Amino acid sequence: MKAKFFVVLLAALLSYCFICGGADTNFYPVLKIGSQTYTNVHIGQVTPGDAIVFFDGGGARIALSNFPSWLQSRLNYHPKKAVQYLQQQQQKQQQLQQQEAAAQKALVAKELAARGPVENIKIEKMISDQFLITTEDGKQIQAYVKLLPADIQQGFDQQNQLSKAIDTLAAKIEHDDRALRYESAWDPISISDPNYNDLETLRADVLNEAGERLTDERQHLDKLKDQLSKIQADTASKNITKAFFTGKLVGQTQIWECVPERR
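The structure assignment produced for this chain is given below.
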């Protein structure tokens, strides 16, 4: 009986040790670090100089020098080692920043070397999100153009809007004209029904109204075309701007960039 009791007690002690050993020893319900008090604190990665601390509302990297002394001991905090470590980290950060700055400087230098000279280009027309341009040496190139002056961009936007409206109206006129000609060509057979003449009169009125609407649509189409011609002429008079080839391509399409005018 005593042997059996000893076995049960030993098993209980081992279970307790297992449970305690598996507990999160870096978790604290409430912890004061410096002047701040945090709740549900979990200490993550620990270095000789600081530690990542998670708590209700977020997390932060906090220097070990701010921790309470009892926790500093648990985290193997040594002031001299901490200072050395933080200085080394600061030096590494500075070196990394210098390397990034040098790489950025080299990239800018490479881009500047690849750029073409600033020249006067003529924006001929807009093709989707690209433009057909004429360079100073007379070459015509389809290219992307960045920083296009607002008045030129506005002119091409208006042209595109009017062109779409013209295409839509022209398609409608073609459809309505075809329908009207079909109805007008229909030759009814004389019928003795007394109501037939009234129907023919109504049909004639409907055809006349359709013809008048078609005439109005054609007149409106002519006005839109005149308006488009004026905008094209206005845009053509001011579609020369200074720009340069950036040296970059999207596929096989060059990217140009306009030079803002100084005021």
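Interim note for the steering committee: The radius of gyration is 41 Å. The chain has two domains: 23-82, 119-258.
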